[in-house]
Write a structure and sequence with these properties.
611 residues; alpha+beta; five-stranded mixed β-sheet; flat
Length: 611
C-alpha cells in the first residue's frame, strides 16, 4: 500500500498560525466553504434583534478572533437562504458582498421586514477620526436601516472619545451611548440601552466551553473533526504508516465509542477551567489549540518521513499525542504568544501536579502503544552525578506523560480541579449551583478568612465576624493594627456572576448577556454590606485563580512579593468598607491575635483593656 496524504488533516492544520498555509483562522481568508459552522446562540439573538423596530445600531465588540465578521456573514447567509439550508454558493456570495461593501457605504442585505442592513466589518481599519464620523453616521442609518459594527473595545472607546474632541456639535454626546451600553453590560449584564436603539454585545463573555447542553465550541469541533466526518479519515486506512501515525492515533482515541466522550469531556473541562482563571480564549485560539492538539503540529509528510527512516519505531510519537500536544511543550515561547491560550492551559497542566493517590497507580508498562521512552533508559544503573541527573529528568518526563494520559483516560471526574492544581475549584463551581444548601457557609467563611489574611490577619478556627483594618495599616503593618470595622458574617453572601448582575440591577430577571453569548460563569463575588444603610453593598470579585489564592492564604500560605499586585487590588476593594465616621473615643486594636480596646480617659490618658 502507498503512503497517503489526507486532505482533511491538511484542512485541520490550516488553523495553526505557525505555518504559511494558516488560512482558515480568519474568515476573510477561508477557502473551504463546505466546512460546517458552530451554531452559536449569538446568531439567533442577532436574527431577532434586527427585527425589532426600535433597533438602529448593533455593536459586536471583543478581542480579535471571537468571530465578529463570521457572525455578520452567517447573519447575511441566514437572511438570504431563508428557511432553506445554507449552501456553499450562498456563503461565497456573502463573502464577496462583505468584501465589496467596505466601510458600510451601502446596504449588504435586508432584514425579513425589509429594512436595509449596513455592516462595518472592522472599525480598526479606519483612523480614529474617520471611525468617529462613521459611528455618528451609523447611529442613525439611512432609510430607517440597521447598522452592525464590528470593533474591538479599545478602538471603540477611542473613536467615541474622538467624536467629542473633534466633531463639535455634530457628534457631541451622541456616540457616548455606545460606551455607556458597553459599561452596563459589564456592570449589570445588559446589552441594550433603555430605548432599545443601541445594542452592544461584548464577545469577551463568549465561552468556548459553555455550560450548555452542547458543551460549547470545543466538544463540537472535536466531534466534527474526529467523529461526524469519519468518512474523511478513510484514506488513512490504506496508508502504510497508519500503525505508527500519532495523528491517526489521536483521532482514534478521541472518536472511540466507549472512551472518546469522556476524553473529549476532559478536554472541554480543561478549557473551561482556563477561562475561569481569567483567560479570554477566542474562537480563533480555540481552533488553533484544538488543531495543534489533534495533529501534534505534524503533517502527513512529516509522519511519512519518519516512517521511511524506521517502519517499526514507536518511541518518537509520544510528544505528538493529543494529551501532550495540548500543552504546547514543543512550541517556542514566540509561537505560544501567537496563541495565548497555551499559556492558560499550561498553568493547569496535570502533568506537573504530584498527587499520591494518582502517582501510586501509574504504571510505565501501561503507557500505551507509543511510550515516552525506552524502559531500559530510565532503569539503568546510576554511576555518576550526570547519570543521576539524566535519570531524574527522564523519570520526570515519564511521570508527566503518565499523569496527563491518566487525566484524560480516567473514569473519575470528581477530582479534575485538584489534578489541575486547583484545590478550590469544586467550591468555586458549587457557588453557581442554585440548589446548594443555604446553610452551608464553608465557601463564605473561607472567602472571608482569605480576605483577612490579605490584610495580615490570621485568626484560628471559624469566626462569626469579619475584620476590616484601617486602610493606613494595609501596607504598614506592625504587631498591632487598628480595626476599622467588624462585619457580622451573617449578612455576607457569595454569589455567581449572573446573581451579582441581578443584585446590582435590583431585579430577579435574568440579565440579557446570559442568553446572548455562549455562557460560562467565570467569576464569583462576595457581597459585604456597606457601612451606611443608604449605600450599596461592596462586592469583591474573584475568578478561579484569585479564589484559589484566597483559599490558600486562608490556610496560612502566602507570598507577598509574587502576588503583590493581587494583594494591592484586594486591599483597594476592602478600603471601601472602612468606617471613617466613627467618632467614639474607643479604638479597637488587634495585637497579634488578641483584640484590645484603647479608650481615651480624662487628661488624654490612653487606657487599654482586653476586648
Amino acid at each position: 500500500m502507498p503512503l497517503e496524504v489526507n486532505k482533511h488533516v491538511q484542512r485541520i492544520r490550516r488553523y495553526q498560525p505557525f505555518d504559511v498555509d494558516a488560512s482558515e483562522m480568519v474568515y476573510e481568508l477561508q477557502a473551504d466553504w463546505t466546512q460546517p459552522q458552530f451554531p452559536v446562540v449569538t446568531l439567533d439573538y442577532l436574527l431577532s434583534a434586527i427585527e425589532r423596530q426600535t433597533t438602529k445600531t448593533i455593536v459586536l465588540t471583543g478581542d480579535a478572533g471571537h468571530g465578529k465578521t463570521s457572525l455578520c456573514a452567517s447573519l447575511l447567509a441566514k437572511l438570504r437562504a431563508g428557511d432553506e439550508p445554507i449552501t456553499p454558493d450562498v456563503r461565497k456570495a456573502v463573502f464577496h458582498e462583505l468584501s465589496e461593501a467596505k466601510g458600510a457605504s451601502r446596504p449588504v442585505g435586508r432584514t425579513r421586514s425589509g429594512r436595509p442592513l449596513y455592516i462595518l466589518s472592522d472599525l480598526s481599519e479606519l483612523s480614529p477620526q474617520a471611525g468617529a464620523r462613521k459611528l455618528v453616521e451609523l447611529l442613525d442609518p439611512p432609510d430607517k436601516g440597521i447598522a452592525i459594527i464590528c470593533a474591538n473595545e479599545g478602538q471603540l472607546r477611542k473613536c467615541v472619545a474622538e467624536t467629542d474632541d473633534n466633531l463639535g456639535k455634530v457628534g457631541t454626546g451622541r456616540a457616548k451611548v455606545l460606551v455607556q451600553t458597553l459599561t452596563q453590560g459589564i456592570v449589570r449584564g445588559q446589552v441594550s440601552d433603555p430605548h432599545g436603539a443601541v445594542t452592544v454585545i461584548n464577545l469577551n463573555y463568549q465561552s468556548v466551553a459553555a455550560a450548555s447542553s452542547n458543551g460549547g465550541l470545543i466538544p463540537w469541533v472535536l466531534k466534527q473533526w474526529t467523529t461526524t466526518q469519519s468518512s474523511r479519515w478513510k484514506r488513512c486506512d490504506t496508508c502504510d504508516a497508519r500503525e505508527v501515525c500519532p495523528i491517526l492515533a489521536n483521532r482514534n482515541e478521541l472518536s472511540d465509542p466507549t472512551r472518546g466522550p469522556q476524553r473529549r469531556g476532559a478536554i472541554r473541562d480543561m478549557f473551561a477551567a482556563a477561562e475561569r482563571t481569567g483567560a479570554v480564549i477566542t474562537t480563533r485560539q480555540a481552533l488553533s489549540v484544538t488543531s495543534y492538539m489533534l495533529t501534534g503540529g505534524l503533517s502527513c509528510d512529516d509522519v511519512h518521513a519518519r516512517y521511511q527512516r524506521s517502519h517499526s519505531n514507536r518511541l518518537w510519537q509520544a510528544p505528538y499525542l493529543y494529551h501532550q500536544a495540548l500543552f504546547g511543550d514543543r512550541l517556542s515561547q514566540q509561537q505560544r504568544h501567537l496563541v495565548p491560550a497555551f499559556f492558560a492551559l499550561r498553568k493547569l497542566d496535570p502533568g506537573r501536579v504530584s498527587r499520591r493517590q494518582v502517582d501510586d497507580r501509574l504504571d510505565p508498562d501501561t503507557a500505551g502503544d507509543f511510550p515516552p521512552a525506552d524502559a531500559s533508559s530510565y532503569l539503568q544503573k546510576v554511576r555518576t552525578n550526570r547519570d543521576a541527573q539524566k535519570q531524574a529528568e527522564q523519570l520526570r518526563g515519564l511521570y508527566t506523560f503518565l499523569r496527563r494520559a491518566d487525566f484524560f483516560n480516567s473514569d473519575d471526574d470528581t477530582d479534575r480541579f485538584a489534578r489541575m492544581g486547583l484545590q478550590a475549584g469544586d467550591d468555586f463551581v458549587r457557588v453557581q449551583d442554585k440548589n446548594r444548601d443555604p446553610a452551608d457557609t464553608r465557601v463564605r467563611d473561607r472567602f472571608l478568612k482569605g480576605l483577612e489574611a490579605v490584610q495580615g490577619i490570621h485568626r484560628a478556627a471559624s469566626n462569626p465576624d469579619f475584620f476590616v483594618l484601617d486602610p493606613a495599616f494595609f501596607t504598614h503593618r506592625a504587631r498591632a493594627a487598628v480595626i476599622s470595622r467588624r462585619v457580622p458574617s451573617k449578612g455576607v453572601e457569595v454569589v455567581d456572576q449572573v446573581t451579582q448582575w441581578q443584585r446590582e440591577a435590583g431585579t430577579s430577571t435574568t440579565p440579557e448577556m446570559r442568553n446572548v453569548v455562549e455562557w460560562l460563569n467565570r467569576a464569583i463575588y462576595i457581597r459585604i454590606p456597606a457601612v451606611a444603610p443608604d449605600q450599596d453593598a461592596v462586592s469583591v470579585e474573584a475568578d478561579l485563580l484569585r479564589f484559589e489564592l484566597l483559599t490558600r492564604w486562608a490556610a496560612g500560605l502566602r507570598s507577598e512579593v509574587q502576588h503583590e499586585a493581587e494583594i494591592r487590588g484586594l486591599n483597594g476593594s476592602l478600603a471601601e468598607l472602612a468606617d471613617s465616621s466613627n467618632k467614639d473615643d474607643e479604638i479597637q486594636v488587634l495585637v497579634g491575635n488578641v483584640m484590645r480596646k484603647l479608650m481615651i480617659d480624662v487628661g488624654d490618658k490612653i487606657r487599654s483593656v482586653r476586648a
